[in-house]
Amino acid sequence: MSQTTATAHMENSADRASLLRSSLSNRATAIEAAIDSLLPPVPGAEGRVVDAMRYATLGGGKRLRGYLTAEVASLFGVEPARAYRVAASVEMLHAYSLVHDDLPAMDNDDLRRGQPSTHRKFDEATAILAGDALQTMAFEILTDTATHPSATIRIGLVAALAAASGAAGMVGGQMIDMDGEGRALSLPEVERLHALKTGCLIRYAAEAGAILGDADLPARARIAAYGRDLGAAFQIADDVLDATASAEELGKTAGKDQAAGKSTYVALLGVDGAAREARRVAEQAESHLDVFGAEADRLRNLVQYVVDRRS
User: Which family, according to the similarity comment (predicted)?
Assistant: First the structure.
């Protein structure tokens, strides 16, 4: 590659990154507004748990999962208001998982997004209830006719989220993660752990946009495969970040995986090997988008963002 070509490539990459950051920011603002509208403060004694729910979901985060839902939905011509309701729903489900993950009985983390974890800001009992309520509200939103007039599509969203978040998905992955602390897991075991704990919800976030857009089965399968591989790339990159980034960059405690004796991609492959694997899986994720042409460029750029990020 000539110096001129290399410079042009770098400039093009910078342009794509800038456009993606703008797109992420715009959608994050819209998702935040949707959550704020769907989850207003309430008076009375129960207001404390709602305050904790709002604390856990509002005021920060990349909104990667919500962005995926909204961006894929736009690929299939979904009305933005419907897309942002589903995006808000998946962000609430994700927030519930983080609230519970941070508890002393789980990962025992005092920081989340650079702020005190929900159980530190409120108390453990309130955090548990807030997580429970965020989980149920995620499904409540999906069942509302404002999300989609078709009961078939609403049921499809509910069924897919239930599968992604239960014992065969995110919860099962968390169980494997806890069970694996202090002992060496093989690479296939680590891949399965993260495919369930992290990957299933990211896959759902992408697939939800296709379900909402009533995409045909081949298109939905390609989007699901993209989400699956994006989730894998995200987690491998996350392991690299945990080993190399500071707490200030991460917005949470750094180095916790190693301190807890967890088996990670970095522990098995080394930092450089894990970074190479993240890029390999990222290329695989992009390949699933070939049939969608230029309209899927932001989803392609998102793959690079996931593996290049520092937080």
Answer: Belongs to the FPP/GGPP synthase family.
